[in-house]
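Hi support team,

I submitted a single chain yesterday and got back a structure, but I'm not sure I'm reading the token output correctly. Could someone confirm the output below corresponds to the sequence I sent? I've pasted both exactly as they appear in my results page.

Thanks,
R.
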Amino acid sequence: MRLIAGMRLWYSARFLGGPGVARGVQAVINRGVRSPSAFGEDPVARSCDVCGKSTVYGNRISHANNVSSRAWYPNIQRVRVTVGRSRRRIKACTRCIRSGAIVKAAS
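Hi R., thanks for writing in. Yes, this is the structure output for that exact sequence:
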């Protein structure tokens, strides 16, 4: 396969460590990623206090193979639990609640 001189320069600069690499990589990293801090939310607000399960980020891929960012949020509930002799409210995922990892406080 023959390469045009300009194509080879673009290819080498882009993928083999030329001056355009840092900008190209940074553009890919910054493109379309939605972080909770960008919206004024606490980054650990949607996380389980028991197991640490939190938001997972990925891509939504359409039938036409269009890619856009999306997030999967854990099912977090505020639960009153007994800690020692006191009662507190914690954020727990439904799996921790169902598995018995926490002890609910009596109403």
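A quick pointer for reading it: The chain has two domains: 1-31, 43-107. Let us know if anything else looks off.

Best,
Support desk
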